[in-house]
C-alpha cells in the first residue's frame, strides 16, 4: 500500500484512521488495560476501599500460599475443571459422531442437546436447585425413591458437591462442543474416507487415522475454551450451593472455587488487595492455558 | 460524521475519567437542614419483598404525620445484603437507613459508616427493647450504631399424631430429646428429628452452646470456644447428626413436617404458613420451646437491627424515623400488614410480643417464653466476618472431618484473627 | 466479487463420519446400538426441562406434595399471575405469581426491560465500535497497528474477573454504580469480537474498498456502506455470542446493582431464590426462569442457521 499520497492527504487519512480506532482503544484502555495494571498494583497492597491502598509487597501472595480456604478453592477448581473438560469433550465428540446427519432425528437430537446453551443460565441454576431439593418433593429424590433409596442430601453432602457441579457443567455444555465437532466433521473431505475404504481400513482405523487427527484443531479449541470457562465458574456455586447470608461455597467449602472466593474476599470482606491477588492467580493460570491455544500464533502469521 | 466524532470523544472522555477515577476520593455531602423542605429517605431493608411492604406501611404512616418526609423502602436479599451494605458503607454512598443482621451495624459502624444513635436521643429506646437483643446490637465501646427492628426465635414444632403413635411427650431437655428420638424410631417413624433454621450453621450450635453454659465470646469480646461447655455442646449437637440421624440437608420446616418428620427445630416464621399452606397438617401439629440443656433453656434470638448511615444527608429525620418504628402505631401498622400477607413479625418490644402479634396467642406465648430466656448473636468486632468460617469448622466436626476439640480451636483462631 | 468466508466452511455432509454408513443391515443395527447411550443421554436432557415446565403450571399445594405429580393435575397460570392472591387478606393456597412478587414499579417486567435494553445496547454498541477498529486494523496501513493488534490478542487471555475490583472502584468513583452506564460502557470494547472481525476482513480482498476510495468516498462512508455489509455474516455470528453472554451476565450486575429497579433478570431471580426456599414457591421461581429463557430460545429458533454456523465459524477459523 505504498501509494504516493501527498503529506497532507496522508495526515488526513491517518487522522481518520486513528479517529476510527479511538472509541475502541479508549474503552479498551479505560476498562481493561488500566484496571489490569491497577489490579496488579492492588495485589501488592492492603486496600479496604476507604483508606488509600497501603503497599505491602508480596504479603498477599505469601498469605495466599498458606490460606487453607484458598488452597481448598484451588483443589476444588482443579477437580472441577478436569472433570468437566474431560467428560464434556468426550461427550461432545460422541454426540457429534452420533448425530451429525441432516435427517430430522439427528437435527432434533442436536437441537435438544444444544438447548441448555440458549436457556437462561440463571434459570438452569434455579432448576437444578429445585431438581436437587433435599426432601422427597424434588425430582432427584423422587427418582431415588423409585429405586427404594431414601432421600439424599444432594446439596449438603460435601463428597457430592464437585460431582454435581461437574454434571451440571457437562449437561449444559456438551451440546455446544457437539456443534463445533459437527462443523469439524463436515470440513473433512469425503475422499479420505473413500480412499481408506478402498484400502480396506476398518471403521475404527478410519476414525483413529482420519477423523481424530483432522479434528485436532476443533479439539484444541473445545478443550481450551472449556478450561477457561471452567476456571471462571461462579454462578453455579453461588446460586445452587451457597447457604444463607455471607456463606459461599456450600457445606464445608466443598464447592468453593477461585472466583467465588474472589467474590467472598473482595465483596463480603472488602479485602480488595487480597482479592486482587486471587484475581492475579486466576489470570496467570488462564494466561498459561491460553498460550497453548494455537489460534493466536496462526493469527499473528496472517497479519 | 460530526456526531460520530462527538460520540467518540465522549467515549474517550469517559474512559479517561475512568482511569483517573480510581485514585479519586468520594466527596463529602452537605447537610440539608431546612426543616420543612421535602425529604426522601432511602431505607434498605434486608429480607423479602413482603417484609418490605410491611415496613413501607409504617413509612406511609410516618408520612401522614410528617407530610414532607417520604421513606422509600427497598429490598436487599439475605444472600448478598451484607456485601451490598458493606459496599455502601465503604463508598460512603447509599441509603439513609439500613436494616440487616442483628450485629451488622456494629461492623459498618466500626468503619465509620454509621451514626451513633446515642447522640440523637435513641438511648431512650433501650428501656423498651429486650435487654438481650439490645446488648447484641451495641458495639463493645458502647456506641449504638443500630437498634433492634424486629425479633425472631426458634421453636420445636412437632407432629402430634406421630408423637402419640410412639406414646411420647414433646421433649423438654437434651436427655428427653435423644430418648424421644429413640422411641419414635422404635415406633417406626422414619424421620424422627430435623433442623431447619440453624441446620449445619452457627445458629444451630448457638442454642446448644448457651444451653450448656458456654458462649462465643467472653464479656470483653475474647473468643471463648476453648471451654468444656463448648465441647460438651458440640458433642451433643454432633451426636444428634451422627448417632440420632438428624439430616444434614435443610428441609424447610413446614415441608419437613408435611413429609413426615416428627419434630423440627425451625424459626417462628413457619408457624404462620402451616395451617394455610399445608391443610393436611391442620390439627396434627403443635409447637413448644426447644429442649433445655444442663445450664438452661437459652434459645437464639435473631432479628434485624436498624440504623442510620453517617453519610445520610438527613441524619436527624432518619433517626426520628427509626424511633418511630418503636411506637405503638408503627408496630400495629406493620403487624396488620404482616397478618394480611401471612408473614411473621415479632416487634422489638417484649411487651408487644403477645398483644402486638401476628400469631395466635398460644403460639405467641411459646415465642415469648423462648425470647425471655434467649440470647442474641454476639456483638463483638469481627463476628460477622468470622461466622461463615466458624460454621465451616462446626460442619467439619459434624461431618467427621475433624474432632470436636480441633474444630473449636480452629474456630476460635478465626475469631481471634478477625477481632482486629 | 469477494469470496464470503462462510463458503470456506463446507456445509454439513450428508453421511455421518466415524459411524458406518449404508452397507449391510448388521452395520446399520450396529450404528443404532452405538447411538443407544446417546439416546439415553437425551432422556437426561429432557427430564430437568420437563420438570421445570410442569413446575411452572402446578399450583403451590400440588408442588408441596409427595410423591410429586408428573402431569399437572390442576394446571394453572397462577405462578405468573394469581388473580386470587391479595395483599389485603390471606387466601389459603394462593401465593404471588412472578409478576406480583416485586415491589418495584412494573414488577418483573421492569427486569425484562432492563435485560433487553442492556443486551441490545451492548450488542449494537460493541459491534459498531469493534467493526470500526477492525476495519482500521485490517485495511489501513497505519503505524502501530501490529502492536495494537498484538495487545488486543494478548488481552483475550485475561479473564475479565481480574479487572473486577478496579472496575468496581472506577464505577464507584464515577458515580456509576447502579446505573445503565455501569452495565453498558465497560462491556463495549470486546477483544474477541475485534479479533474475529479483523480475521474476517483480512480474507476479504481490497478491491471493493480501493474502488470506493478511487470514487472519492471517505473512510467513514466506506466503513458504513461497504465494510459493514461485507461483515454481515461475521456480525451475525458475533451478535449471538454477545447477546447470550450479556443476557446471562450475573457477577458484574451482582456487584454494581444497588436498587431494586436496576437489577437484570438473573439478579432479580437470584433474590427470590435466596428468600423463598420452600417447594410451594418453586412454581413462581421456575415461571421466572421460563420467562428469562423465552427471549434467548426464541432468538435461537429464529436465527438457528446463524447459530450453528456462527459457532462453527468462531471455532474453526483462525
TrEMBL record, chain A:
The molecule here is called Sugar ABC transporter permease
Q: How does it sit in the membrane?
A: Multi-pass membrane protein
Record family assignment: Belongs to the binding-protein-dependent transport system permease family.
According to the record, the segments passing through the membrane are 18-37, 78-99, 111-131, 151-171, 218-241, 272-294
Ranges for domain ABC transmembrane type-1 = 74-293
Q: Name one GO biological process term.
A: transmembrane transport
Q: What is its main location?
A: membrane
Instruction: Give Gene Ontology CC terms.
Output: plasma membrane
State the organism of origin.
Nonomuraea turkmeniaca
Please name the InterPro entries in this protein's record.
ABC_transporter_permease (IPR051393), MetI-like (IPR000515), MetI-like_sf (IPR035906)
List the Pfam families hit by this protein, alphabetically: BPD_transp_1
Q: Where in the cell is it found?
A: Cell membrane
- Annotated PROSITE patterns: ABC_TM1
Q: Which lineage do the record's taxonomy fields give for this organism?
A: Bacteria, Bacillati, Actinomycetota, Actinomycetes, Streptosporangiales
User: Source organism's superkingdom?
Assistant: Bacteria
User: Quick check: keyword Transport in the entry?
Assistant: yes
Keyword annotations of the record: Cell membrane, Membrane, Transmembrane, Transmembrane helix, Transport
From TrEMBL, chain B:
Q: Which UniProt keywords apply?
A: Signal
Q: What is the top-level taxon of the source organism? A: Bacteria
**Annotated organism of origin:** Nonomuraea turkmeniaca
Q: Could you say which residues form the signal peptide? A: 1-23
The protein, known as: Extracellular solute-binding protein
Q: Where are the transmembrane segments?
A: none
| Pfam family for this entry, one | SBP_bac_1
TrEMBL record, chain C:
Please list where the region (Disordered) is annotated. 1-24
Could you tell me which residue ranges the ABC transmembrane type-1 domain spans? 112-303
Q: Where are the transmembrane segments?
A: 36-57, 111-136, 148-170, 182-201, 222-244, 283-303
Q: What are the recorded Gene Ontology BP terms? A: transmembrane transport
Membrane topology, record value = Multi-pass membrane protein
Top-rank taxon = Bacteria
Compartmental location: Cell membrane
Q: Name one GO cellular component term.
A: plasma membrane
One Pfam family hit: BPD_transp_1
- The answer to keyword Membrane applying to this record is yes
Query: Which keywords appear in this protein's UniProt record, sorted alphabetically?
Result: Cell membrane, Membrane, Transmembrane, Transmembrane helix, Transport
Q: Indicate whether Membrane appears among the record's keywords.
A: yes
What family is this protein classified in? Belongs to the binding-protein-dependent transport system permease family.
Instruction: Please give the name of this protein.
Output: Carbohydrate ABC transporter permease
